[in-house]
Amino acid sequence: MLGFMAKTTDKAAEKTTEKSSVSPEELLHSARHLVGRVTGVAETVVDPFTQLMERQRELADHMTAWAQLQHQLADRMLEWAALQRQIVEVSAVWVAPAESAAKVTSRLLHKISDE
């Protein structure tokens, strides 16, 4: 198949050369120039997309790092909440006798003032 295409291309080049009196070197130069221009256009179009994909990868990395930090913060907040509960429970134990004493004293003062 490729041999047939090569022969057909050669025959077309020969006919083109005969008709327009363009040398094979000139034809090759034109073809190289055309391929170079097409490649340049492709690079021009693809390069911004490549840069965009790189920025998207960086964004994904930053998002991952941020999510991990948020997870660590949430774990710390849970620890701090547990410590706060312990502080409240200990404080309640310390305050309970004083609260009871205040209530008893208040009742006694009311009884004394009523008499």
Description:
- By secondary structure, this protein is mostly helical.
- The protein is built from two helices and no strands.
- The radius of gyration is 44 Å and the shape is rod-shaped.
Query: Low-confidence spans: pLDDT under 50, at least 5 residues?
Result: none
- What is the H/E order? HH
Radius of gyration: 44 Å
Mean pLDDT: 84
**Cα shape:** rod-shaped
> How many individual β-strands?
0
- Describe the sheet with the most strands: none
In terms of structural class, how would the helical and strand content be classed? mainly alpha
Relative strand content:
under 5%
Spatial separation of the terminal alpha carbons:
123 Å
Tally of alpha and pi helices: 2
| Helix share bin | over 70%
